[in-house]
Amino acid sequence: MQPLSHFAKGLAYEQHACLFLEQRGLELIMRNYRCRAGELDLIMRDGDTLVFIEVRYRANHSFGGATASVTLRKQQRLIAAAQRYLQQYPSDDPCRFDVIAINGNGQCTWLRSAFHVHDAN
């Protein structure tokens, strides 16, 4: 059996994160929204809040692990992609950016409101 490609692993971790969040009451709106500005792994609803979710996997904690991999530049790309999404699908609901960090054991750490638009400017 051949090992999974990088792309297939990414999809599997996104599915794992999606199930994790659905079990906690969030509702999936869209997966892998892509635009020129970047990509949003998961877009979900948490009550009346629209949540843009970045899924990160790291097998070990070298260099800070999965959470540290959401750099300022990555945050800026996520914000730009979210702005594009909201132009395409307007909403007056509050929005937030969450990160799901998955470690080598498959354990999820959920960082709600991991960053804000004003943090990345």
UniProtKB/TrEMBL annotation:
Single GO MF descriptor: nucleic acid binding
InterPro entries: Restrct_endonuc-II-like, tRNA_endonuc-like_dom_sf, UPF0102_YraN-like
Similarity remark: Belongs to the UPF0102 family.
Highest taxon listed in the record's lineage: Bacteria
Protein name according to UniProt: UPF0102 protein HUK38_00790
